[in-house]
Amino acid sequence: MLRGLYTATAGMMSQQRRMETLSNNMANANTPGYKADQTSLRAFPELLLHATGKTEVPTQKPLNLPFAQPIGGLNTGVYVQELAPLFAQGDIQQTGIDTDLSIIQQQTSGAVFFTVEQTDGTYRYTRNGNFALDSQGFLTTNDGLYVLDENFNRIQINDRSFQVQPDGTLLVNDQPVARLGLTYTENPNELVKEGNGLFRLPQQEGEEEPQLLPLANNVVFEIRQGFLERSNVDSSRTMTEMMAAFRAFEANQKVIQAYDQSMQKAANEIGRIN
């Protein structure tokens, strides 16, 4: 009976974490460049039950031969194995603001990112192109992180009237001044998701922080100025999954209540002496 309590509790904990992930996705449904998280549920290792016993063999010297007869498998609950962002292309929304940039990929594999510099000098990668110009003319994110060019230098634009070519080249008075430092990874699932729409590569202890490689020539993309990539969260689907997670949580809760009532009856009624 206690095994059933543990199984139902594991189910409730998994659905609670799933609900937290879905709620976070819904809260960021209007965040530019946000990539929805996906939960992957997995069952704990399955137990194979056997009935063991002995068989007497009628011989001159009686023998007792042990045997094990399979009964079947027993699952011990589920858990959230991992959270993986969905790197599908989000919808493109026109804003008309020159500092808003969006990445449009022409291929489904891999992912292209803007490169930004944190205050400690390390690099991060983002799809949120909601940029701005600071007082010194540097192109930054709304959080104050510097947007980098292809040589990993900060981009300074002395004229607020500038154009961005589809390949990421920035023009001031029709003269190229820099090119966006776009990076690419064939396997975006290896990235670690941080807050504010930032990603990084996993770092091994004692090693320098790895960096994504610049764009290869075979990567097809387009930079569009005056547009933002919206979040790729499907609000309708997320609401449906939230309802399903809530019902699954409720079902496990009722299982625990049934076990609790059975244990109460066993303790208070079955063991009572008349």
TrEMBL record:
GO terms for cellular component: bacterial-type flagellum basal body. It holds the Pfam family Flg_bb_rod. Residues 224-268 form the Flagellar basal-body/hook protein C-terminal domain. PANTHER family: FLAGELLAR BASAL-BODY ROD PROTEIN FLGG (PTHR30435:SF19), FLAGELLAR PROTEIN (PTHR30435). Belongs to the flagella basal body rod proteins family. Residues 110-170 form the Flagellar hook protein FlgE/F/G-like D1 domain. It is found in: Bacterial flagellum basal body. InterPro entries: Flag_bb_rod_N, Flagellar_basal_body_rod_CS, Flagellar_FlgE/F/G, Flg_bb/hook_C_dom, FlgE/F/G-like, LlgE_F_G-like_D1. This is Flagellar biosynthesis protein FlgC. It comes from the Bacteria. Residues 5-35 form the Flagellar basal body rod protein N-terminal domain. Keywords: Bacterial flagellum, Cell projection, Cilium, Flagellum. It comes from Sutcliffiella cohnii. GO terms for biological process: bacterial-type flagellum-dependent swarming motility.
